[in-house]
Design goal:
It is a single chain. With 100 residues, this protein is an alpha+beta fold. It has one domain: Alpha-Beta Plaits (2-Layer Sandwich), CATH 3.30.70. The chain has helices at 14-30, 61-69, 71-83; strands at residues 3-11, 34-39, 52-58, 84-93. Strands 2-3-1-4 form a 4-stranded antiparallel β-sheet.
C-alpha cells in the first residue's frame, strides 16, 4: 500500500533551505518516491498557515522510512531544521475504501 509524506514548515533561511532541497530530492528518487506537490502559497481553509507544504508519495511505509532514516537524509534534515521552524512531517496511509 502506498503512503504519503505530508510536511509543512516555515522557511526562515531560503538560501540554506535550497541546499537542503538539493540534497533531499535525489534521495527521494533513490527510494522510489515521487514529489506530488510543493506549494508556498497554499489556500488555508481552516486553521492558520504560511510556509511551504510538501506532499511525497512512496510505494510503501518501508520505502518512506528508508528515505527518512537514510544517513544522507538525516544529515540533510539538519539543514532543514536550521532553515525552517514550526515544522510537521507525517506518514499518511493511502486511502483504501472499505470492502462491502
Amino acid at each position: 500500500m502506498a503512503v504519503y509524506i505530508v510536511s509543512r514548515y516555515n522557511i526562515t533561511d531560503p538560501e540554506m533551505y535550497q541546499k537542503y532541497v538539493g540534497k533531499a530530492v535525489p534521495l527521494i528518487a533513490k527510494y522510489g518516491g515521487e514529489i506530488l506537490a510543493v506549494d508556498k502559497d497554499s489556500e488555508v481553509l481552516e486553521g492558520s498557515g504560511n510556509g511551504v507544504d510538501v506532499l511525497l508519495k512512496f510505494s510503501s511505509r518501508e520505502a518512506a522510512q528508508g528515505w527518512y532514516n537514510d544517513p544522507e537524509y538525516v544529515e540533510a534534515v539538519k539543514q532543514r531544521h536550521a532553515s525552517t521552524n514550526d515544522g510537521h512531517v507525517m506518514i499518511v496511509n493511502e486511502f483504501v475504501p472499505p470492502s462491502e
